[in-house]
Amino acid sequence: MIQYSYPSQVYTKISIFLFAILVLVYSCKKDIDKKPPALHLITQSGYVADSNVVTIGFPFRIGINAGKGEAAITNLVITLTTENGMETALDSGMYSSDFSYTRNVSYGASRFEKWEFMIRDKNGKSASTSITILKDINSAFGLITSYSSVKLSAQNDAAGNAFFSVAKNLFYSQQNATANQSGINIITYYGNLLTPSTEFTLSSPSESDVSTFYPMIANWQIPKNETRYKPDSLSISQGAFDAAYNDSLIITNYTSATIGKRKFKIVRAGYVIPFQLTVGPESGKRGLIKIKSIQEGPSGHIIADIKVQK
User: Is the peptide bond before 205 cis (omega within 30 degrees of 0)?
Assistant: First the structure.
């Protein structure tokens, strides 16, 4: 009988290999055993329930309660899926043991809206939940108000009107804006004092740079009215804007998942810009601004047509 003798180095390598496998198996088991975070829809009075049937434009509220597992929650992602595809409504980092989140929504035009919430913790563990709302097939689009050839000035035109009330179709100059601040939703300025320049800019009272051009706004009553503008200005043609006679074009281009900006920079002739009034007496209304022409510079102006939900 032949006997084989293996060098001690071979036994050492085998031992190291087996030890590595044991460590890997233990680590994987440890990761599997980690408790994930918990996530639940808020179902109390005032919140919409799964499979509710609502009309176009119906206002409702959705929300979640979240709690950590073995590690802090570090991320919240909210998506909206409709028959037209999926949009990210929120992707926010955080470091929290537990929290609640609510969102006020105005139903769009799709046959359904699926809102999905996902949280992830520091260990990479996640949890998700969703709610689906259905459209009443008998519901109709809403009426709109149209304003033609609205002239809005830049800051150096002291006699011009840089302040506009969407609800009242009234213009205000720098001299009488403060007395009418509660109704002002849109403000224009030429951003030559900013670096880099934002050129002709659509803004509102709560926007951070607007008081650089109109210092009196810093002392306006809080909360100041706010309007948010969708960054995309090229998805709607001028022809489609002109043909719109109800709010279908508005709500399909500024959905409940849209993440608007407090100002729209570098306005150009031909743009059609979706917007929503987010703070103030007319909060929730959405609309479109079509830029017909523009005279550049701090003494310039824009001419625009505006359509907004009644």
Answer: no
Find where tokens 């009034």 sit. 277
Residue 252 structural domain: 144-309
- Residues 91 and 199 grouped into a single domain: no
* Contact call for residues 96 and 69 (beta carbons, < 8 A): no
77 and 118 housed in the same domain: yes
One domain for residues 94 and 209: no
Burial class (CB in 10 A: 0-12, 13-18, 19+), 274: buried
Provide the pLDDT confidence category of residue 171 given band limits of 50, 70 and 90.
very high
Inside any domain, residue 235: yes
Q: Residue 66 — φ and ψ, nearest 5°? A: -125, 145
Assess whether pLDDT exceeds 90 at residue 6: no
Q: What is the DSSP letter of 124?
A: S
Last residue of a domain, one of 135, 163, 196: 135
**Tokens for 264?**
């729209």
Q: How far apart are CA 288 and CA 273, in angstroms?
A: 5
Number of domains in the chain: 2
pTM, rounded to two decimals: 0.83
CB 303 within 8 A of CB 161: no
Written as six digits, the tokens of 71 are: 């590690």
- Kindly state whether residues 127 and 269 are assigned to the same domain: no
Local structure of residue 223 (DSSP, 8 states): S
Say yes or no to pLDDT of 8 above 60: no
pLDDT in tens, 222-251: 999 999 999 988 899 999 999 999 999 999
